[in-house]
TrEMBL record, chain A:
Similarity comment: family membership: Belongs to the binding-protein-dependent transport system permease family.
Upper taxonomic lineage: Bacteria, Bacillati, Actinomycetota, Actinomycetes, Kitasatosporales
Keywords linked to the UniProt accession: Cell membrane, Membrane, Transmembrane, Transmembrane helix, Transport
Membrane topology value: Multi-pass membrane protein
Keyword Lyase: no
Main location group: membrane
Membrane-crossing segments per the record: 45-66, 118-142, 154-171, 177-195, 226-248, 283-305
Subcellular location: Cell membrane
The protein's name in its UniProt record: ABC transporter permease
Top-level division of the source organism's lineage: Bacteria
Region of interest called Disordered, as start-end residue ranges on this chain: 1-29
A Pfam match: OppC_N
Limits of the ABC transmembrane type-1 domain: 116-302
Automatic annotation (TrEMBL), chain B:
UniProt KW Signal keyword: no
Name the UniProt record assigns to this protein: ABC transporter permease
Subcellular location: Cell membrane
Source species taxonomy: Bacteria, Bacillati, Actinomycetota, Actinomycetes, Kitasatosporales
Alphabetical keyword list: Cell membrane, Membrane, Transmembrane, Transmembrane helix, Transport
Species of provenance: Streptomyces smyrnaeus
InterPro entries associated with the record: BPD_transp_1_N, MetI-like, MetI-like_sf
KW Repressor (keyword) present: no
């Protein structure tokens, strides 16, 4: 059974076995997706991550529900009484003030927007771009596959963090869009590889041959037959990667080459907090915990989705 | 075998050229002028700037500049820093050994701890210990390395006083322990998970049942039959991971003030010092390519059925 080793591995780049044909036939009444959804709801990992993600999305959409303070209101008087008051729930001084007298809690809440936006933007665009490249390479094969695979290799050869640093330093005005674009520029290869593998597996199934011999057009075969059946491994990798993109945004902002000052980002806050780490650790630790919780929520979601869509890895 | 290596080496050439060209283009074709930066706030004389650019070959078309760079590279010339006139090779020579040491330290830690943890939890899949290891890896993946670095710094240096907050001597292995653990954390979690899945799956394989039925000692079943086969996906991951470990050193070296490649590249980026960035990135790409070649060759060692003819 060693041949299945690679495919069964939890390796992000390894092509997961495609659930061939399962979504096509209405046998037993449940498709792969509704089956997965059924499994997902019973997974405590999913429930916990879903609660966390709903809370986060609420922070993104309505930050003023969580805090009355504004993240950029700096009152230096607060600097001297900056310690957290863990009893004051949702008050501006719940997690204390930073060295400039801004409410740490308000910044924790408002920082969610940048992180989640970048995470979702990058995941969506990466899935789209990587998916298209992977599908074209996998479906058409031949020289097109060779060329696209070599291009993928070239991008893969550049370390993700290093490459995005280089891209970002060349921009002076960095916002959420620029950071997302930089992460997309280097991040699409992972999905492309997975999608290519999945498409190659699906391409050889009988129903694709059948559709071809019935005279279905290339477009129809691709979108009606291949995409639905090759989607599962791509979704798994994309969900897991989402947490990684959020961590990457925070890391870049921390390094000072991601989002910058007027934008509220947890990475920036960790960077400003590091100078006071000895005397006022809450300034650094509070946003750091937020980043970690957010990444944790999405990684757990990814794990749960993987378990639901790929029962073999259980 | 020899032919396979030769073919792989040939295949590496376009990837190497492509990757370095990409970094080269990013550094040179996008805004930000290193010669202009020499003048700081002062308004420079355009004629002077043109002269400097001509002297450095920066007025040539991009492809020509890249060609010059590539030919220089094969003569061991990584270019020259524009501001300090210092050869980039000098910078690399000074910083690389430190990062290699840090990366190797982290790598060994990843391999030993990751495979051990993965093996232990894979052998007891779905038992309490396995759950604990799973939660542990989940936490390691969730905490970004810069957060982990500061948490460790706060805990071990400021609260417990076991270590100095930053590394005093970058060549001292003992002081590199903490940065290496921080650098290794993410990979450690992935290796643990990969090994666990692989071991748990192979445990059900026929050849393991045969091995047990033959009456082989458990140590041999686990150590030779199970582990060797389970390591293939782990080795794949480790091969591609060395490059990201070296790049990840940017964060770790910054926090702990280790004078390695990461620090050098970060400073160079802030100064728009393109030649240094391209030089170091080229080296990291080479490391990545060589590592992935080694991984392919290791497959044959792990699985004798794989042959390269």
């Amino acid at each position: 059974m060693t041949e299945t080793l690679d495919t069964a591995a939890k390796l992000p780049t390894a092509p997961d076995p495609a659930p061939t044909g399962k979504g096509e036939k209405p046998a037993k009444g449940r498709s792969l997706w509704s089956d997965a959804w059924h499994d997902l709801r019973r997974n405590p990992l999913f429930v916990v991550s879903a609660v966390l993600i709903v809370l986060l999305l609420a922070m993104v959409a309505f930050p003023s529900l969580f805090t009355s303070a504004s993240p950029n209101d700096a009152d230096l008087a607060n600097h001297y009484q900056g310690d957290p008051h863990y009893g004051h729930f949702f008050a501006p001084d719940w997690f204390g003030y930073d060295t400039q007298g801004r409410s740490v809690w308000a910044r924790m809440v408002y920082g969610a927007r940048a992180s989640v936006t970048v995470g979702l933007l990058v995941t969506l665009s990466v899935t789209l771009c990587g998916g298209v490249v992977g599908m074209v390479a996998g479906y058409f094969g031949g020289w097109l596959d060779s060329v696209l695979s070599r291009i993928t290799d070239m991008f893969q050869g550049i370390p993700f963090l290093l490459g995005s640093m280089v891209v970002l330093t060349t921009f002076t005005d960095r916002n959420v869009w620029v950071v997302s674009a930089a992460l997309l520029f280097l991040g699409w290869t992972q999905i492309a590889r997975v999608a290519r593998g999945a498409v190659i597996t699906v391409k050889q199934s009988d129903f694709v041959h059948a559709a071809k011999s019935l005279g279905a057009s290339t477009m129809r075969i691709m979108f009606r037959h291949i995409v639905p059946n090759a989607l599962a491994p791509v979704v798994v990798v994309a969900t897991t990667a989402l947490g990684g993109y959020i961590a990457a945004e925070a890391t870049l902002s921390y390094l000072g080459i991601g989002l910058a000052a007027p934008a509220v980002s947890w990475g920036v806050d960790v960077d400003t907090g590091k100078d006071a780490l000895r005397t006022a650790p809450h300034i650094l630790i509070s946003p750091a915990v937020m980043v970690s919780l957010t990444v944790l929520a999405f990684i757990m979601l990814g794990d749960a989705v993987r378990n639901a869509l790929d029962p073999k890895s259980r | 075998m020899g032919r396979y290596v030769a073919r792989r080496l040939l295949q590496m050439i376009p990837v190497f050229i492509g990757s370095t060209l990409l970094i080269f283009c990013m550094m040179y074709a996008l805004p930000g002028d290193p010669v202009r930066a020499l003048y700081g706030e002062k308004a420079p004389d355009p004629a002077q700037i043109a002269a400097i650019k001509h002297q450095l070959g920066l007025d040539l078309p991009l492809w020509h500049q890249y060609w010059n760079y590539l030919t220089g590279l094969f003569q061991g010339d990584f270019g020259t820093q524009i501001a300090s006139q210092r050869p980039v090779f000098d910078v690399i020579e000074q910083a690389f050994p430190v990062t290699i040491r840090l990366t190797l330290f982290a790598f060994v830690f990843t391999v030993v701890a990751g495979i051990l943890l993965g093996l232990v939890s894979g052998l007891r899949a779905d038992k309490a210990l396995d759950r604990i290891v799973l939660v542990f890896t989940l936490l390691l993946i969730s905490v970004p390395s810069f957060v982990l670095g500061f948490l460790f710094q706060y805990l071990f240096a400021f609260q417990l006083g076991w270590v100095t907050p930053t590394v005093q001597n970058s060549r001292d292995l003992g002081q590199l322990l903490l940065p290496a653990i921080v650098l290794a954390a993410l990979s450690l979690a992935y290796v643990t998970r990969l090994t666990r899945t692989s071991v748990a799956e192979n445990l059900r394989a026929d050849y393991i049942r045969t091995a047990i039925a033959k009456g082989l000692p458990r140590r041999r079943v686990v150590g030779v039959h199970l582990l060797r086969n389970s390591l293939i996906p782990v080795v794949t991951f480790l091969g591609t991971d060395i490059g990201s470990l070296m790049a990840g050193a940017v964060v770790t070296e910054g926090i702990f003030n280790v004078h390695g490649v990461g620090n050098a590249i970060f400073e160079a980026l802030n100064r728009r010092e393109g030649s240094t960035v391209v030089g170091i990135a080229t080296l990291i790409v080479i490391v990545y390519l060589v590592a992935s070649l080694l991984v392919d060759l290791l497959y044959a060692v792990l699985d004798p059925r794989i042959r390269y003819d």
